[in-house]
Amino acid sequence: MLRGEIIDLLDEFEKRFGRERNLIELESGRVIFVGDTHGDIDATGRIVDKYLKAGNRIVFLGDYVDRGPESAENLNTLLRLKLEHPDDLVMLMGNHEGRKAFEFQPSDFWDGLDSELRRRYAAVLSRLPLAVSTSNGIIALHGALPDVETLEDINKIAFGSPGWQQATWGDWQESEAGYPDKDMFTGRPRFGEGWFNEIMGRLRKNVLIRSHQPNIRQVIYNRRCLTIFTSSFYRSSVPGRTVAIADLGKEIKTADDLVIETI
Q1: Is this structure's pTM higher than 0.90?
Q2: Would you say the C-alpha torsion 101, 186, 238, 136 has a positive or negative sign?
Q3: Fewer CB atoms < 10 Å away: N or C end of the chain?
Q4: How is residue 160 annotated by DSSP?
């Protein structure tokens, strides 16, 4: 896209979706949850061709840029599709959309922008919502569960705050730990099964669908925490480019009640 077209796209997106709440609530239909795409425009294209149709909602779980070779194309395509299909496509925020809050690596997309475009992209992406809640027991976000008492409290999480870092940057570990610590190498907030059970109980949800963390088993915590990836960047460490599909007319108690497909 030409520079002027990018500015126009960002302006229109900010005008139409700048007031979205942090929590998007879905009550009916069929929902396709998509993990990190990280500049994999081919994966995004396959998802749109296969699933963007009547009766479906597509929820992208964040991390649209960096690592992959076509970050700008991937992100701009998704922004345009959101404008064209506002009710059928949800874009959540991942940590790679949080450049306005902090710097991170790798950041090849951000490092390739001039200062004006970096500022405009960062401002627009900082307003993306954080989580999706469904009427049949699912909560979906990018990283880990934030320290909130109710679902409504997710709407009170400020960009860049500790709760925001938990939701966009947090990892899970297969331990019984009930309280968060930090990974000594990455600085990411890190949580165990005790924390998972406590927050899921507060939110009255059965299953968490998330992405972000390629070094963990796909299903943990009594099959209630599902991690998916949809970028070819992770093919060496995770099983294929996967999506999770939920029928909102059916109660979801564990990940076994979802359909996992490879694209």
Answers
A1: yes
A2: negative
A3: N
A4: T
Query: Which architecture, in CATH terms, is 3-262?
Result: 4-Layer Sandwich (3.60)
Cβ pair 96, 126 in contact under 8 A = no
The per-residue pLDDT for range 22-66, each reduced to its tens digit, is 999 999 999 999 999 999 999 999 999 999 988 899 999 999 999
Residue 170: name the closest of 123, 132, 130 by CA.
130
Is residue 44 within 8 Å of residue 16, measured between CB atoms? no
> What are the residue ranges spanned by the domains of the chain?
3-262
Torsion of CA 81, 85, 89, 95, to 10 degrees: 40
Give residue 238's pLDDT: 66
Phi/psi of residue 51, nearest 5 degrees: -115, -20
